[in-house]
Known about the structure:
It is a single chain. This protein is mainly α. It has 4 helices and no strands. One of its GO terms (biological process) is DNA transposition.
Amino acid sequence: MERKNTGKKYNKDFKKTVVDLYHSGTSVKELSNEYAVSEVTIYKWIKKFTPIGTGEEFLTPKELAAIQKENLRLKQEIEILKKAMAIFAKK
C-alpha cells in the first residue's frame, strides 16, 4: 500500500483554529470532512497544541518534553560533579 503525499502545508493559525473547534465540541470526523484534512493529522494537531496543566500554568507537550530533556541533562551534570568532588576530596 503506497502512501499518498498531498504536499499540503497548513499554517500554525489554521491548525490552532481546528484544535479550538475540536475543543468547542466539533468532532474530528466533522472537522476532517469540512477542512479536507485527515483525521490522523487532526489528532496529531490536537496532541501538539492542547495545553497540559492546571490552574494558571499551562505547557504544550513540546514544552514539557524540552523541560524533561533539560532536567535529565542537569541530573547527569550533578552526578558528574559529585564524582569529581569525591575524587578531589581523596587527594
